[in-house]
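Can't paste images in this forum, so I'm doing it all in text. The chain is below; anyone willing to post the predicted structure tokens underneath?
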Amino acid sequence: MPFPGAVVRTHVYVDGFNLYYGALKGTRFKWLDPIRLVALLLPRGYRIDRLRYFTARVSGKFDPGAPARQQIYLKALATLPEVEIHYGRFLAKTAWRPLANLPVARRRIDTPKPVTLPEGDHRVYGARAQTLPVGRYPDRRSADGAVRSAPMTPLRDAVIAEFHTMEEKGSDVNLAAHLLNDAWKDRFEAAVVISNDTDLVVPIRMVAEERRRPVFVVCPGQWQIAPQLREVASHVRHIRPGMLRAAQFRDTLPGTGISKPAGW
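Text version of the structure:
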């Protein structure tokens, strides 16, 4: 921690999608001012000189209004002089995978002991079907701290299906590259990384140990911080709902005409 009266030059590195899915999705706090949020997370004496925000432009394939809302938010971020936005990309692809969860109703499934599923949400475990309400599937906590449904091994004769998926590419690599580059160019005295992505363990360790710069790792709201990140972090912080509430932009940014998207 800084000496009384000292000012610590600080750079912030935000994994935009990790922050969104960990702390903002489904809340009323998407209109977030990240500079105000980080100021709430840090002790006194840390001055935010630069905030690098890593994201990708979203697709409107499943939500036609999403690109417009994102663009409004990116314009709001651009009004902050400390913020620099870095773009990755979305990769749309298809893949073939065996089905482990067969979401059918009133259909016979020819497992070793045939069953017919009633209406509802189901999981099939070998020869038996279990009817569970949405959100009540058996859970486990994964290595990155997220709560996920318990893994299932597909049967050898499982149905194979082709599915569409969108992957965000580049943000983790871009974040790691800028974190390391800024550290070796002595651009900061402390760093803040907002992400729970374990791909960042090595660059964080290098900055903390080799460059001897403290790194605050901030875990987005609902997740527990990944143990690997906790090991290499100089300090750990968690985003609380009260912080998100206190770190919102004004509904309309003065002098810009930029207003909070409807529904946010």
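Confidence is low (pLDDT under 50) at residues 124-150. The chain has seven helices and 14 strands.
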